[in-house]
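Customer escalation, tier 2.

The customer says the design service returned an amino acid string that "doesn't look like it belongs to this structure." They asked us to rerun it and document both sides in this ticket. The original structure tokens are below, unchanged.
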């Protein structure tokens, strides 16, 4: 299973997450350096993942786009279960529906971040990750 999201959303979100796990001395953290390092780390990882998938075989992977998961969570879960050859029983599906109702987007606040906080821009991220966006048909938000 491989999930896909607009890298201009995923990269700064991950950089924000990393910046918040540092101790109280985070005020001294170089966010621009962090943004650059996180973006580079994730880009290299994606290059390696694409190369590995070519060796392993594309048929062994199921691609799930973030927009699908958000738009139709249960339909996406059903597709994952089917790909894995698992039975999604009624009880498990009900539990998932209950969890989804309780934990819908924004139910526990929102994760606010801005690429500029990390010395990044949407345009540059899209350019750096164009190979990934094109390879997997990732939907990007805003103009490209």
């Amino acid at each position: 299973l491989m999930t896909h999201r607009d890298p201009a959303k995923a990269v700064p979100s991950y950089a924000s997450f990393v910046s918040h796990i540092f101790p109280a001395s985070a005020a001294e953290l170089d966010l621009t350096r962090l943004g650059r390092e996180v973006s580079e780390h994730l880009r290299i990882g994606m290059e390696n993942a694409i190369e590995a998938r070519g060796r392993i075989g594309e048929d062994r992977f199921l691609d799930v786009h973030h927009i699908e998961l958000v738009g139709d969570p249960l339909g996406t879960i059903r597709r994952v279960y089917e790909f894995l050859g698992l039975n999604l029983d009624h009880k498990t599906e009900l539990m998932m529906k209950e969890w989804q109702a309780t934990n819908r987007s924004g139910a526990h606040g929102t994760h606010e971040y801005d690429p500029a906080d990390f010395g990044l821009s949407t345009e540059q991220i899209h350019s750096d990750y164009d190979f990934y966006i094109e390879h997997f048909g990732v939907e990007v938000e805003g103009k490209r």
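Tier 2 assessment: The sequence is consistent with the input. The longest strand covers residues 2-4. The mean pLDDT is 91. Sent an explanation to the customer and offered a walkthrough call.
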